[in-house]
Amino acid sequence: MTTKQEIVENWLVRYTGQQLDNFGKLILLTNFNKYVDIFCDLKGVSPASTESGMRCATAEGVTMINFGIGSPNAALIMDLLSAVSPSACLFLGKCGGISDKTRLGDYILPLAGIRGEGTSGDYFPPEVPALPAFMLQRAVSTALRDASQDYWTGTVYTTNRRVWEHDERFKTYLRSTRAMAVDMETATLFTCGFYNHIPTGALLLVSDNPMYAEGIKTEASDRAVTSNFAEQHVRIGIEAMRLIGDGRKTVRHLKFDW
User: Fold this and answer.
1) Total domains present in the chain
2) Contact 196, 81 (CB under 8 A)
3) Alpha-carbon distance 3 to 36, whole Å?
4) Angle at which helices 33-43 and 219-245 pack, to 10 degrees?
5) What's the CA gap between 26 and 146, in Å, rounded?
6) CA distance 4 to 78
7) How confident is the model over 98-144, as pLDDT tens digits?
8) I want to staple 199 with a disulfide (CB 3.0 to 4.6 A). Which of 84, 133, 163, 176 is the partner?
9) What share of the chain is helix, strand, coil (3-state, %, to 5)?
10) Does a structural domain hold residue 258?
11) What confidence tens digit (pLDDT) does each residue in 25-42 have?
12) Measured between alpha carbons, how far is 19 from 56 in angstroms, rounded to an integer?
C-alpha cells in the first residue's frame, strides 16, 4: 500500500470488521458500546459484532461506530472514514460541564472546539479553529426542537489529559476559557473532519460536573446518566441524520452570486 486511500480502505475494514460497501453515507460516532446497542435495538438490526476494535452497525443508510475514547482515536476514525467519503458525520458524546449553568442530562450543541489536545496539531497549525459544519448542527438543532428538548450552545474544550479533576490549577484554567464543557474528542473530530473534507458535527450530553468534588463521575452516576438519557440522545442523532437523508436539511453551505 503506497497511498493514503489504499491504507484507509484496508484499515477501515480491519478496525470495524465491516466491508466498505456496508457503510452508510451518514455516520453517527460514539464512544460507547451501549449506544451501538441502542441503535441496533431502535433500528431492528442484529447486534454489532464484539470481535472488532470499533463496533459498528448500519441501518437505512446510517452507520453508527464506537471509535473508542480519546483524541488519537478521534483523529484515526476521521482518517479512516475518508475511505467512504461520508455526506455527514455526527458525534454523540458525553462531556463534563464547566459552566455553572449545566446540569446532568443537558445537551450542548458545540459551535466550536478549543484545541487543547495536541493531536490536531498534526493536521493544522494552532491558529486554525476547530469548527463544525454549520448546516449539520442546524439539522441537530431541528431534531432537538422537534423532540421538545432545550440545549446550550458554546465552545467545548478538548484535552488529552485524564484524571485532572483534583487539579485546581487546571480547573481554574478551564474556567478562564469560558467553555461550556470539557471532553476528549470534539475539537479533534472537527479539525480532522475538516482536513478529510467530511462535514462533521457533535451533540454532547452533560454526564458529570467535574469542577466540583461532588460532581465527579463515578461508576454509579455514569450508569444512571446512561439509563436516563442515552436512548434519547441516540434517537435525536438518528433523527438529525434522517433530516439530512430525506433532503429536508443539507450540509452544503449556500452560495451567493455577487
Assistant:
1) 1
2) yes
3) 31
4) 50
5) 20
6) 13
7) 999 999 999 999 999 999 999 999 999 999 999 999 999 999 999 99
8) 133
9) 40, 20, 40
10) no
11) 999 999 999 999 999 999
12) 11
Whether residue 255 is contained in a domain is answered as no
Angle at 242 between CA 239 and CA 246, to 5 degrees: 150
Amino acid identity for residue 242 in this structure = R
Going from the C-alpha of 70 to that of each of 35, 156, 251, the distances in angstroms are 17, 14, 26
Query: CB atoms < 10 A from the CB of 65, how many?
Result: 28
Rounded to an integer, what distance in angstroms lies between the CA atom of residue 176 and that of residue 114? 12
Is pLDDT at 245 greater than 90 in this prediction?
A: no
What is the full DSSP assignment across 157-172? Answer: EEES--S-TT-HHHHH
As a whole number of angstroms, the distance between CA 102 and CA 57 comes to: 32
Residue span of the structural domain in which 12 resides: 4-245
Instruction: Tell me the CATH number at 37.
Output: 3.40.50.1580
CA distance 45 to 42: 8
Residue entry with cell 503506497: 2
- Residue 45 in any domain: the answer is yes
Query: Residues 6 or more apart from 2 whose CB is under 8 A from it?
Result: none
Neighbours of 9 (CB within 10 A): 17
Dmax over CA atoms of the chain, in Å, equals 57
Q: Does residue 252 fall inside a structural domain? A: no
CA distance 81 to 179: 28
* Helix residue spans in the chain (DSSP H): 4-16, 33-43, 71-81, 134-146, 168-176, 186-195, 219-245
Coil/strand/helix, residue 11? helix
DSSP 214: G
